[in-house]
Write a structure and sequence with these properties.
By secondary structure, the chain is α/β, with parallel strands linked by helices. It is built from 6 helices and 8 strands. The chain binds NADP nicotinamide-adenine-dinucleotide phosphate.
Length: 231
């Protein structure tokens, strides 16, 4: 029997692109779990979205927090349809590969690449109960290798290349799932800054499309503006 209620978890949904994705999916009728590491900000975001939204504490850089979040969610719901791995960071001083420290590298990789993998593993049993499970990994064109690097935020870019690799491997391991990476473009958020060319609504569009409308057999790809792009 197909499950009627669509349920999604969006990580890093207390602000920026993640909040907008959660808001738009709630508007489309999804029940939304607002994943955030900061309880106050996460609860406030869920209240702002409305009755369809609930806060779920999850620090994507902490394997213990990921496990707790998965068991907490399993107490409330019997399936999960869409996981949006949105949370991400650029650490201070990530501006020159020859000066990159092991701390910067480890923190960035743990949050941006390992976190989404561990979250996919932890929530996979609940996703497998969906009639059309989807994982959407929010990546960046900065992670593309096909045209070479330009030196901008090197560790962040490496982490997004790794995230695209995680996407590709998960798609191969989960043939019934749609697993894709998506670049939102340059978006006006705390990360993107005020000079960015896109609003959060524009940035969220491709993520929401992959979460709710894209063909289920579209998987293992990297997309921007609803189109497959090379990486
Ligand atoms: N903005 C852009 O131009 C742009 C371009 C390409 C890709 N992206 C990607 O889009 C995603 C969202 O970025 P954004 O622009 O919306 O950035 P943002 O406004 O800085 O928001 C980032 C979100 O991630 C959360 N987060 C960071 N580390 C976390 C952790 N360990 N556990 C849980 N949550 C954590 C933050 O929570 P706190 O509030 O607690 O810090 C916040 O909710 C990121 O993956 C980013 O790499 C953004």
């Amino acid at each position: 029997m197909p499950k009627l209620e669509k349920i999604t978890l969006v990580t890093g949904a207390n602000k920026g692109i993640g909040f907008e994705v959660a808001r738009q999916l709630a508007k489309k009728g999804f029940r939304v779990f607002v994943g955030a590491r900061n309880e106050k900000a996460g609860r406030a975001a869920a209240v702002k979205i409305g009755r369809a939204a609930k806060f779920l504490k999850i620090d994507v850089s902490d394997p213990g927090s990921i496990r707790e979040a998965a068991s907490e969610l399993a107490k409330t719901i019997d399936h999960l349809d869409v996981l949006v791995n949105n949370a991400g960071i650029i650490v201070d001083g990530d501006d020159a590969i020859l000066k990159t420290t092991s701390g910067q590298f480890e923190t960035t990789m743990r949050t941006n690449a390992l976190g989404p993998l561990l979250i996919a593993q932890a929530f996979q049993p609940m996703l497998a109960k969906s009639s059309a499970p989807r994982i959407v990994n929010v990546s960046s064109s900065g992670g593309q290798l096909h045209d070479g690097a330009d030196g901008w935020s090197p560790v962040y870019c490496i982490s997004k290349t790794a995230l695209n690799g995680v996407t590709s491997q998960l798609a191969a391991a989960l043939p019934k799932f749609a697993v894709n990476s998506v670049c939102p473009g340059w978006v006006r958020t705390d990360m993107g800054g005020t000079n960015a060319t896109r609003s959060v609504e524009e940035g969220a569009d491709g993520i929401v499309w992959l979460s709710a409308e894209a063909p289920q057999n579209l998987t293992g790809k990297f997309l921007q503006d609803r189109k497959v792009i090379p990486w």
